[in-house]
């Protein structure tokens, strides 16, 4: 936990956890301002959790959420009012402390000399020169005044971002590449299902970001605020400007925990959990081990979501644990899915249905979770069945595993790069932006109709790298992505249905059927998931070694 003093009344810092509140109290703080919106990161406690800890410690809180890079004059005014009204000293935080510092700087602009604002921020470790430029420019940031310029800029350092950087460096060691991402930790998110099933430790799925940025790639540890594609520039949180020749956009997607009424207030307690958050996956395993009887609900929201099979993976592993503990017959399992099918590629459904029957799971299709009350252990679902009037039902639970609704990050949805639904608009074969030909996108954020999985990013990264190198050489795109995605469906401990498919649900097996028949549960697929995929991810994919991921040549469409 970092505490950075700006004034005698205000200190700022990066994201805190509920357990840090007691430390703040011991340091003499009496109030906390939360400037980070809920649901911004996969390891982020929400405001309700911070507020509960603060109340228990006798501290006041104020929630003034500000989207990354969207600090407005109105936000700064609200921040100033909070500072005046709340007992001090006050601790304010966001992801890194930059937004909180920016709010303070803008609020103080009329009362303090600019050098004092810049000096205090610099002493705390924050560069406010971009904010100074904004103040001097009447509240706007001039994008033509670059702070730094790179040949290739990559937004996002998740699976897609690190992989494409490594693939580019493998092809062009001399390329000037920068990755922009404020996160300190990189997560192997496919492992969280296994954490929730008691197979992996959560710590095994996390590494420091600095250890993974490819050698020779610059790391700009900041958040993107806005895109200026017509000027080949990005504006960062804190109003700095980064110019580029070519841009790759891959920041992942946003988990919209706030899209379900009451969910944020009860996550991690009252039997409410989710493997979609790093700190909650261990709680899933705790609940599964402790449940001996009652109702267990597993939810799935409307598409698109990250790894469409993850909600039912959690269910199968939980049910198998209850089977081994000989309590399965005492547990009423429901899979409540906003969609109308168990899995989107029909070839895998027969094998999955065998496990649905084995575990006596009730399938509730067209059921979308809209509200939850943790203390009373009740959940409300909106039911939209074909040719029927929508209705709502309420049901009780002893355990509920929630998959949150998901959408593109806010700074993407409002950008010139987005389509009508908010996703980055790309050609589904070349992954090049449809309007800006020096921009590419990959991973969960783009709008190609493929499954949003890490395996998809593994295939996409070499395609983007090949096409960027071709563009640098003055050539047309040379590689294509066929929509490949993989979803290892953990149907029981020791067996997996390895779903591999491309655009249109066409099967794309990586192995011969005698080794792994993906339409059936196999031990070989389990060994692949448990023992081979993690080292492949860390030591091959993120290092530009394209095992089973060589890009396909682009097929030129005939005019005939």
UniProtKB/TrEMBL annotation:
Domain FAD/NAD(P)-binding: 151-264
Range of residues in the leader sequence: none
Gene Ontology molecular-function annotations: FAD binding; hydrolase activity; quinone binding; sulfide:quinone oxidoreductase activity
Gene3D superfamilies for this protein: FAD/NAD(P)-binding domain, Protein tyrosine phosphatase superfamily
The Beta-lactamase hydrolase-like protein phosphatase-like domain, residue ranges: 3-109
Keywords annotated in UniProt: FAD, Flavoprotein, Oxidoreductase, Quinone, Transit peptide
Domain of life: Bacteria
GO terms for biological process, alphabetical: sulfide oxidation, using sulfide:quinone oxidoreductase
Cofactor section: FAD
PANTHER family from the UniProt entry: SULFIDE:QUINONE OXIDOREDUCTASE, SULFIDE:QUINONE OXIDOREDUCTASE, MITOCHONDRIAL
NCBIfam families, sorted: TIGR01244 family sulfur transferase (TIGR01244)
Protein name in the entry: Sulfide:quinone oxidoreductase
């Amino acid at each position: 936990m970092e505490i950075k003093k700006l004034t005698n009344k205000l200190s700022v810092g990066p994201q805190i956890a509920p357990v840090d509140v007691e430390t703040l109290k011991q340091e003499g703080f009496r109030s906390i301002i939360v400037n980070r919106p809920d649901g911004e990161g996969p390891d982020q406690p929400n405001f309700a959790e911070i507020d509960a800890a603060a109340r228990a410690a006798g501290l006041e809180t104020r929630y003034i959420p500000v989207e990354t890079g969207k600090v407005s004059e109105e936000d700064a005014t609200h921040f100033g009012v909070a500072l005046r009204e709340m007992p001090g000293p006050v601790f304010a935080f966001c992801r890194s402390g930059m937004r909180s510092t920016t709010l303070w700087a803008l609020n103080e602009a009329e009362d303090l000399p600019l050098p004092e604002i810049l000096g205090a921020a610099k002493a705390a470790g924050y560069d406010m020169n971009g904010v100074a430029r904004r103040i001097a420019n009447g509240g706007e940031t001039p994008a033509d005044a670059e702070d730094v310029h790179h040949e290739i800029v990559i937004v996002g350092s998740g699976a897609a971002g690190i992989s494409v950087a490594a693939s580019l460096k493998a092809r062009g060691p001399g390329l000037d590449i920068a990755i922009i991402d404020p996160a300190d930790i990189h997560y192997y998110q496919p492992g969280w299902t296994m954490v929730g099933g008691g197979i992996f430790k959560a710590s095994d799925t996390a590494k420091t970001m600095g250890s993974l940025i490819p050698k020779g790639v610059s790391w700009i540890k900041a958040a993107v605020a806005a895109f200026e594609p017509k000027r080949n520039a990005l504006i960062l949180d804190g109003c700095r400007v980064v110019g580029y020749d070519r841009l790759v956009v891959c920041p992942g997607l946003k988990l919209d925990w706030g899209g379900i009424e009451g969910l944020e207030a009860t996550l991690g307690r009252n039997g409410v959990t989710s493997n979609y958050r790093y700190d909650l996956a261990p709680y899933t395993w705790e609940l599964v081990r402790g449940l001996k009887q009652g109702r267990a609900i597993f939810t799935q929201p409307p598409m698109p979501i990250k790894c469409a099979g993850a909600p039912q993976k959690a269910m199968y592993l939980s049910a198998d644990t209850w089977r081994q503990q000989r309590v399965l017959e005492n547990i009423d399992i429901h899979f409540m899915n906003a969609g109308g099918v168990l899995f989107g590629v029909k070839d895998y459904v027969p094998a999955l249905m065998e496990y649905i029957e084995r575990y006596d799971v009730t399938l509730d299709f067209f059921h979308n979770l809209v509200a939850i009350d943790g203390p009373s252990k009740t959940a409300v679902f909106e039911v939209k069945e074909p040719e029927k009037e929508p209705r709502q039902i309420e049901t009780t639970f002893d355990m509920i595993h929630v998959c949150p609704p998901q959408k593109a990050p806010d700074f993407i949805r409002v950008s010139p790069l987005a389509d009508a639904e908010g996703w980055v608009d790309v050609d589904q074969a070349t992954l090049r932006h449809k309007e800006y030909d020096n921009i590419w996108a990959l991973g969960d954020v783009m709008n190609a109709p493929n499954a949003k999985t890490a395996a998809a990013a593994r295939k996409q990264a070499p395609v983007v790298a090949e096409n960027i190198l071709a563009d640098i050489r003055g050539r047309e795109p040379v590689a294509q992505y066929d929509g490949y995605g993989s979803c290892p469906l953990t149907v029981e401990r020791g067996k997996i249905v390895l779903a591999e498919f491309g655009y249109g649900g066409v099967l794309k097996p990586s192995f011969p059927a005698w080794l792994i028949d993906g339409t059936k549960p196999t031990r070989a697929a389990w060994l692949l998931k448990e023992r081979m995929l993690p080292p492949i991810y860390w030591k091959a994919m993120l290092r530009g070694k394209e095992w089973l991921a060589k890009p396909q040549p682009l097929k030129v469409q005939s005019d005939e």
